[in-house]
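Internal QA ticket QA-208
Title: Verify multi-chain structure generation after dependency bump
Assignee: T.L.

Test input:
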Amino acid sequence: MLKRRPRAWQRAWLGVLALVPLIVVITGFAAVVFAGPEPLEFPRSEFPRVEPLPDHCNWSCHNSGCFHTPVLPEILAGDRGMYGLTMKALYRIGSHLDSRRGVGYGLANLVVFCVAWPVVTYSLWLVLLWQRWRLLRIREAATHA
Amino acid sequence: MHELAYPLYALCVDFMLQLAAMLGVTYRDANTVVLLVVFPAVTASLMLAVVVNWRRLRRSRSTSDA
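Actual output:
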């Protein structure tokens, strides 16, 4: 089989595609955090102690639990639904990371949702790009054979 | 470790609170949508695409070997 070298623009395009998820996620995250309606302090040295508001959520919903009625159904957002089960699982994982309950829970959140899961998802994206690249090369080689 | 983890965690909570306010839903809804619906859906779609392409690659290789 005749092997053809990939063109420069193809390699550049592959590089751009590899960066797309990072750019989208970071830009989206920053846009929501900094352009959102709530006042923001960054970096925070401690969790804000605020009074709960009747019409929308604030830090008290995180600190003391949210009393607002969720829009989503009980099976997703309820204490006995996916949300509640995930919280329990994170507390359990957190108990292995730090003896202080809240700290362990926070660390478990970061490890699962900010490190492990994104790494797996981004790795899948890179594998998918590599596969598409290989398929393209095979197809080109077949065309020029 | 905690010096880095603490502000990062707080920033993530701020993100969820901002998103909830923007969408007009609760903090719990925002968490559920992002972490239990969108995130798993993206990962599952990528897994499916990887499996489909892995099969295509295997078929292409066996065809070119023949």
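Spot checks passed. The radius of gyration of chain A is 23 Å.
Status: verified.
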